[in-house]
Each structure stands twice: as structure tokens, then as C-alpha cells.
Amino acid sequence: MFEKYPIDNCIDPKQSRPLSLKIVLDIDDDVEDYDEKFEEYITKMFENLKDSTKKPASILKKFSTSVITFQELDVEDANFQKKFSSEYQLGEWIIQLCCLIPIQIAVTRNNLFQPLKDGLSSNENYLIELEDGRHVNIISKNISFGWYEGIFKHFGNKKVKVISSMGEQSCGKSFMLNHIVGTTFDGSAMRCTEGVWMSLVNTQECIYVALDFEGLKSLERTPQEALFNTVVSNLILFKNQFTINRDISMFQKFQDGAKLFESDPKIFQARLCVIIKDVPKVDRNGITREFQSKFDQLVSKEGEDNFITRMYGSGLDIIPWPVFGDTAWFKKLSIFKTTLDKLETKYENARAFLQNTKVIMAKLKICDWGSLDENLIQIRVATLKRLFPIAVSYGIEQKDSIIEHLMNHDSGEPIDDPIINLCDVLINLEKSTKLLPDSNIWLYDNKYETCIQLSNNLRNYFEEIVQPRRESSDDNEWFSNLDRFFKYIIGRRTSRVQNWYMQNTAKFPQDNSDVVNGKYEMEQEISKLSLLWTLCGLTCHQCGLKCVKNRDHKENHDCLTDHKCHFFCHFTEAHNDNLIPKCSHKAGHEGKHACDKISHLCGKPCSLDDKRNCQKVCSKEIGHDDDEHLCQSKRHYCGKDCSLSASTPKGDYQCPNKCIISYEEEHDSHRCENTICPIQCPIPNCKERCQSDDHFHAFSEVNHFCGNEHQCRELCEDKGICQVVTEPKEQEETYKGLVEETSITFTKYIQLSERLKCNKKIPPNEFKHTGKHTHKENGFHYCDTKCQFCEYYCTLPYGHTQQTHDTRHGNMTQTEFTGEDNEFEYAGYKLRVGDQGTFVLCNLFCKDLGRHRHIDYCQNANCILGNQGQDIQHINENVLPNPDEPKDFISHKLFWKRTGFKDPYSVQDQQEFEKCDYECPDDKHHNSDTKFCELQLFHAPLNPRSSPPINYGYISLDGHHFNCENPNAAFHIVLVLDRSWSMDEQDIKPIPDYLIYDDLKKKHNNRIGAVYQAVYSFMDARRNSAQITIPDSISLILFNNWASVPFEYQDLTDPKVLLNSMLQYEAWLGTNYDSAITKAGSLIEAHFDSKKTNVIIFLSDGECYIPTNQLHAICKQNKEKGSPLYLYTVLFGSDSHSGTLEEMAKIAQSYHPQNSSSDSLRCQFTRVNDANKLVIHFTNVAESLRKHKPSLLKKV
């Protein structure tokens, strides 16, 4: 263990505890001798350990051993336990144990960054529909760090510093990280770290999070992984193999990620330490200068986009590290502790680290390159909005199972819930009673439109601690106290929820649209609560008490009592000494209390008992003189419907109350006891009532404003895009290719634009605010231009002055594959022209191709002006899709220039893409680094006879310069040429003033002459190329109805001799492919040489059937000999009969392995319709140097 992991703790020496060994022996005598022997043995063992590892081991000096006998072993004895046992806090011990186990938190698969859930891939569907569509939020919630989740939450207030290790594979990254921090990442000489692993060390000052990354040269590495490392870390250790690799090419991954996120100093604060492994002391200064120089060059080349300036705000260190095994190797580790101590913490506490890290991982997963701050605001506001219902209803965040109080999510502190005395709330209350705390009081439920059910408990509590309603002689005073009590309870809840929202959004800009909208939604929830608890206060329809339903109830007014008067009968003397009964009138009646046990008053029906407010029985003396029976009510109401009726923007309104004007008064307008205007404010979503105290306010031409300011809810009118949202369309989408067996599973991401709501306030008593609607005054709006391939929006401001647009790019949904070959392989999948490019990422496609050329529709009037410089080369063939539309090869530079968007690739990549994409055909390159032509793309061909530039390498037959040895390929080339009548036509003639023109113009100034000229040019180019160890051999078959052989298996020492043999034949008779292919097969058989590649170049301009049987027989025979035949078919002239020659090439190609590593030769069909192109084709045909890479074309 001590050989693999640290002995002393470098980062926190306080954590190193002295170790001890207790040995129990089954002996009776000489225990002390064994004690000395064990101690001597262990001491010697530790000395050997220190000598072999050179590790600091001061803690081992305190190691103790003791030996006892079985007789002394009494584990139940208290003294024994005190002497021989160690004491640990159980919780602390469990946490330390968990921290010894690293967990994998992310991997890279299919070129995508994949966060894990509890160390495992998660198959959960991320497409849970959120109200606000925040996919980063739901993905981040699906990420979990296993047992470390609880540790981070337990130490939620502690600061966090992150140290990470990366570099080349098998260079000791994990070993070094373990000895710096005290972690236990696995390490070996083999590749053992896949993806990203996390562990942590908890100290008194802070938590040190250690991240161990997969080797940089792993095939699974992506720029996102390097970017994740940079964004979350404080200190990054990058180990480099000094003895193996002294270049900085591996930093290309860093450069690829530098352009993805905006250069934000708040997130790019890491310090990068480049550690050069195993540097002898004498080389340290030199290697430091060398690496510094290379980094300076990189910074100069990439300009302001260089990854060092953009991503490492705390700077760069280049540290030559001592040779492993040297004592200095371990002593030097202390510099990282010093560096970490100096660096500011990126995270205010562990809670912030946990959330920010998960959000970053979610953003990288869905290729969302937008602002991290914006995501954090959106997630925080979305979290608060999700909690609004329970926060407003109960004053807590979680009720089920475990109650979680309203918290400040940044500091972890609870929102203040003061307990006050009731006498501070109610006037004239003498009793000193502490009021219930706000938390967990049920105040709202959207299932209830009235507060009857909700208010029962609070009313009972009020009556219990203040005064029962039945005992109150003044219901107005009682109702006033209840109303004041309810308003305090609701006000307290409102204040706590507002304070909770304010504290949790305090660190964000208060004019941010999400913060503003969240606050608006909170105010809406609070408004519902306040309105629900606004008491009616009008008279109960069954008695004289006040209604305690909410103001907007639709049913009859109700005091929610039994409506009985509970006071004792006023006429006490009439009951003698008997128990005085209670009043028989309705509660809240006027006049004296009278029971119904004895007739104290007249008691006959009131003559106005059909009127409202009547007490029904006559209150006059028994046997009163007049005939009019009247009750104790001072006024009998009219009782007709209130006259208030109005049409409002929110619908017609009819006052539900009854007239309280005395029936005796003459009146045309009926007025109820409600004195204020009851009509709702006309502003949409506002539930408040009109501010007027005039109940009949609506009879005037007025607006019923509530008098408050309102949040504008219109959409922003500013030009440009307010917000761009990246979201996964599917968790995994499957693309079914045009080739039957092709099925590609990938994650597809799309960008949506959003118009945000205006953040302005509408002033009181106004329908609109001044000025236009805007989500933020002078706020940022994105340019509304989209990349034509992936439809990602430009990330620059609307109306930007920069000529090119810029974005981070996504899936190339608006493209389809094109290429010179109808079927091809891309990224390991078999595809066909016309397949969709939707699974390809815009900013990775070109990098995956390496040197390449793009295909685009011709934009130069069918190229009648000729080639347009080095960035364009016209394609003479018909290329799918839309074969009738002329197309060009264009350079990577021109491809991106035409999009109008900034090239997303690094300067280093761009420089590589400017170069020629032709490859040396030598097979020795196929299993190592490909050797490309050293010239620019679309360069003019060099003369194969001339010396190569800088006298190094060679020039190929087709004019490319390679910095390697000539591949020395040797061929037996069988030229099979059509000399039928049609070859005598003079629509195509030899090229004047070119090779052997004078020899041809007399008798062969026709098609066959043009062919002879091309053949001679080909033989001359082969003869004059660099010296070949094994010379080519050439045979010629001229066919019409039968086949003739002017020469066979000749070398190219004197092409003139071969020319003279060829010129004896003129064009005549018909066409017979059978005899030509049969003769070619017999020549190859007769002169078979395993050291030479057999190539047939078959040219014709006429029509003939396919020699299927003969061709299959020849191809099969050569394949069985281990030397598959290469067949080039050339249609010369009209293309009306191309099917036969094209099918012949396909038959021959079918005898070659589909996964053949050789790209230098392949069977193929070509059309040529003039002499120049024929010459060029013949000089290229024996060396196909360029891979036919697919291209993506904009859909039309």
C-alpha cells in the first residue's frame, strides 16, 4: 500500500495519524523478547521501504508495536479497551472511508461528453417537459456523484478547491495526484483511467476535490472533456513525456475547446502546470526555455483565440520534474500545496460546487455553449418557481417525509421565522401569548376557491387565545381583531417568501428577465394568497354577525357560526332564582336579549317580517295598545338587488348583495352595505379590486385601476434574438441510412430562439408604460442569422460590425452527403450519396476528415471563366445529388467564407486544411502517419522530371511533392484500346504542339490518335519518374472484332519503339469486348509476376455487351494467386453507353477486400471527352493518390 499510495499527507499533514500494530501470541514466556523482535523487523522493513521509494515517511517514526499473550486479551475489560483501542467519531470515520473510493463521473463516447449517474450510464429520459423548457436543469438533476453527494451536502458551507490531473497515457498522472492530495486513484503502466474520476479529501480549511482524467492521446478524448477540466478546476496538472514527446501537439484538444465557451473570467480561473516528466537536472533550464518558446509560438499563431489566454486566467507554469526514484521527486510536490493555497476558491461553498459542476456537465452534454451565469440564473429561478406553491402554502420548501424550511440556497442559512407576542399584533390585548411560527401553517391550496376550509384551524386558534366569538359583545371589534390577525399571518408569510426569493436571487442582476419573471410569478402567487384571506365583512344572511368568508365568495354571506345568540336573557328578575336561559334571537341582533322560555315581550310576528334585517317577533310589551307589531331592529332594509351592474373588460358584473336602504325611504337606486367599488382591475392577470371607495364608481366613464403598478407581460420588441435555448430533441435519435444495414444512433440538439417578456413596470392607473417593450433596457440581443448547415444562431450582438458571423455550431441538420463515389465509408458507417448529415457536428466534421476538399454547387456561370484561383477546382463529372447541377471542389477556407460564419477551427487546423490532400501511395504509410503532398491545395502539377523542392523527397507522376522515399511500385500495365470504326472520327484529335503530334497528324489525326498520344505521354512519364528498382512492364491490346497485340510485356526503356508498333494500327470494323478481355487475361497469365501489380486500362467509345463470364474468370484467377486485378475503364467521347464500362469496373472491384487498407489503387470507371483530359487521366491512372472523402452539401 505504501509503495503505491502516499505515506505522509502532502496537502494536510494533520490528517496523518500515528499507526500502531497489536500482536497477540499464544505463548506464556519471553513476551518481551518477541516485542523487541517484531519492533526490529518492522523498523527494518520501513527502512527498506524508504530506501526503495525515496518517499517522505515521517509518520512512520511514530509507528508503535506491542505484543501480548492470549491470557492478557480481555476485550471486555475497560482498562484493556482504553489501552489498546482507537477512538474515532463514527460519522467522520465513515466519511473518510467513503473518500478512499473514487467514482467515475463522466465518459466520452461517440465523440460526445456523457455525464454519469452514480458512476453508471443513465438511461433515463431527459425529455421531461418543464414549464420553462430548461433542459440543462433537468439533465443536471439527473447527474449524481454517488456517495459524494451526501458528503458535499453535509459540508455544504465549506470552501472547495479542485485539482485535476491529465496528460499523455501511462505517464503517472494518477500516481502524482495521489501523492499530492492523498487520494487512491488506480494507476499502472497500462491505460487504466477511462473518462473522468473524482475523489476528495476533507480538511479543516476546505474540501480538496481531485479529478483524474483519461490520457490525452486516447481515441475517446474530446475537446469537451478538456474544457470541463478547465472550467471546474483551480489547478490543472498536465504531465508530458520528456523522453518521448517534446512537441506540444497534444494541446490541440485544449485549443479545440478554447472557442466553445465564451471567454468568461469568472469560470476560466484555473492555473495550468505543465509538468515535464523525468528531466535530468542539467536539462531543466533548457527544456523550460524550449517549451516556453513553443507556447509563445502557439499564442502568436492563434492570436486572441489561443487557449492559454482564454482558458487559464491564473496563468501557466512550466515545471521540469525530477527523474522518478530521486528524493527530489517527492519533495517537490509541496510546491502544489503552496500554489493551491495562493489560488482563490472558485466556489463559495460545496453546494455551489455541486450545482455548478453538474450544470457545466449538462451544458457540455448537449453542446450548449451559452452563458453559464444565465443557466445558473435560470436553474435557480426555475427551482424557486417549482417551490412557490409549497412555499406560499406552508412557508417551507418540502413537507413530505422530512420538512425542509425555507433556505438561502447559497449560504445554507434558514430564512428568519421570528416568534412574536400576540399583543404586538392586536390592540387592547392584555394577555401575553407567543404566536405560532410561520413555518408549516397551511394557508393556501389552489383546490379551494374560498378560505373556509383553510381558515377553520386559524379561527379556532384565534378564538382560543383571544376571545371566542360567542362571548364577544361587539362583533365589529371581534371581526376587526380577526381581520388584523389574519392580515398579520398572511403578511408574515408574504414577507418570508419575498425575503426567501430575494436572498436566493440577490447575487444575480435584478433586471435579468428570468429574475424579473420569477418575481412576477411569486407576486402572482402571493396575490392569490392575499385575496383568498381578504375577509368579506358584510352581514351574514342568517344573522347579524359579519361574514368571515373571503371577499370574493359567490355564495350567501356566512358568519360560519350556529347563528344563535349565546348571551343570557336580559329579564333576569322574571326567572327568579332559576337558571337563566340564553337569548332566543339570532346572533348579532339589535335590542335586548330575550329568551323564549317565558313571554317577556309581545312575541307576535313583526308586521315587517318580509323585510331584511327583521328579527321576526314583536319586541313591544305584552298587550301593547297599538296594532302595529315591530321587532327590535332599528331599520328594516329594502332587500332588493343592488343596482350596481356594469360591463367591464373582464366580463359583465352584477353586484350579488341586497339593498340596505330603509324600506321607508323613497329611492330609485338600490345600495348594498358594500361601500367600495368591487370591480376587478382591468389589467390582465391582476385580481385586485378597484381602488375607489365609491360603490357605484362604474356608473361613471372610468377605468377600475387597483392603484398598483403592474409588470408588463408583452413580448420584447427589440430587434434580434432575446435568448437562444439549446435542447436535446431526443435522448437518442437513430438515423437509418440509405445503405440497408446502416443505423446510426446519436443525440441530436437543436437551438430555439425565444422572445422574452418585457421587464418594464406599468405605472399605477395606466394601461401601458412609456417607450417600447424590452426585456432589458439596452440589453444584449443575438444576431438573427443562422448557420445554413446546423441552424445555430450567431452569438454576436444584433447589428454587429464584424464582417463574419460567429457561433458554436451543432448537428448539420440541413445537409446531405455528396462525393465522387456513390457509396463510401464515413466514421465507420457505410453511407451513400444523399444520406443526411444530421448526425455530424458542424465544428467537428472537417477535423475528422483531416486534409480535405469540399463540394459545392458551381457559382461561376458553369465555370466558363475557368478556375478561380487556388480555392476552386471545377468537377467535370456529374456528381450526385442533382447530377445535372455543375459542381466544384472548393477549399475549406472558401467553404466557410461562403457560409458567412467564422471558421470554427483552430489556426493550426486551418493551415493544415490549406494543403494538398493527395497522399503518397506507399503501403508503408498506411499503418503509421500518412504522408501528404507538401504543396497547397489545387496547386499546379510539378514536372515529374524536375528535382523535388529543397531536393528532398520525390515528385509523383501527377505532379505532387512528397517528403518521403519513392514507393517504387512496379506494374504490369495492360492497355486495352478500342480501334473500331468510331475511333476514326475527328471530333477529338491529338493535341497540337504536344508529344508525338507530328507522328500522328498524318494518319491518326482522329480519336485513335488522341488515345495514342495519351498512351505515349503515360509511358514517357513512367519512364522519366524517379528510379524504380523493379521496372514497369507494359502490354498493348488493340481490339475491334478481334484482338491484336502490337507488343507484350515490354519495359519502357525506349517508348519510341513501342510507339512505332502502335502506329501501324488504324481504326476499322466493329467492337468485341469478349475477345479483348480474354486476350488481356491470357497475357497476364503468361507473364505473371507476384512482385508486380496487374493493371488493365480498358478504353472504348462504343457500345458492347458486358463480358461477364470472361471478366469474372480472370478476376477470380488473379485473386486466388494473391494478386487481385485492378481494372480501369475509360469511356472516351459520348457517354450514352457508359453502363457497360461502369459495370465492368464494379465487377473487378468486388474481388478486392472491402476493408482493404490500401488506398493507392482501386477499380474505377471514368468518362473523358477531350484529348487534354485523356492525357491527364492516363498519367494519373497508375497512381490514385487522393482518398475520395465524402463532403456535406447544403440541401436544396
From TrEMBL:
InterPro entries: P-loop_NTPase, VWF_A, vWFA_dom_sf. Residues 972-1185 form the VWFA domain. This is VWFA domain-containing protein. It comes from Rhizophagus irregularis.
